[in-house]
Specification:
Flavodoxin; about 40% helix; Rossmann fold; Flavodoxin_dom; about 150 residues; alpha/beta; four-stranded mixed sheet; 6 helices; two-stranded antiparallel ribbon; globular; Flavoprotein-like_sf
Length: about 150
């Protein structure tokens, strides 16, 4: 399971604990957000880029997303000294169009067991390899979303 998917599952679990129904879907499998009252979209951040399927989800559903609460996150920075990473311009522009804040940055995971592709495998055996996700930070962010959803009821 991808590191970003694991973050999404943790967010979903926290929001479910606040008595909300939650679906966790791959961005490529979402044709429309119409059935949802609120949406969280996450992507891995590779070389400063979001996954294309996550960007396409935002583009395809921009009008619908503009009419519901939306939160965005990305994961990917490696290392112990992490600073929030700006989303690519296209994602920042889409966030502004739909009325969402810039994406929340979470640390990423890159290990020899999970690396895919030549460069990732090389990096996974280097000094930046590891799991830099801060589960307390993820839990807190999800809790804040759950509280906003409760307030919106």
């Amino acid at each position: 399971m991808s590191g970003t998917r694991e973050i999404a599952e943790a967010i979903a679990a926290r929001i479910r604990a606040s008595s909300h129904e939650v679906d966790v879907l791959d961005a490529a499998d979402v044709r429309s957000v119409l059935p949802y009252k609120a949406v969280i979209v996450g992507s891995a951040l590779y070389a400063g880029r979001w996954r294309p399927e996550a960007v396409k989800l935002l583009q395809r559903n921009a009008d619908l997303l503009a009419r519901r609460p939306v939160w965005l996150f990305h994961s990917g920075p490696l290392g112990t000294e992490q600073v929030p990473q700006r989303a690519p311009r296209k994602v920042r522009d889409l966030a502004a169009r739909i009325g969402a804040d810039e994406p929340k940055t979470f640390g990423g995971r890159l290990t020899p067991q999970t690396a895919v592709g030549f460069f990732a495998k090389k990096m996974a055996n280097g000094p930046m390899a590891g799991d830099y996700r801060d589960w307390d930070e993820i839990e807190l962010w999800a809790y804040e979303i759950a509280q906003q959803l409760v307030s919106a009821r």
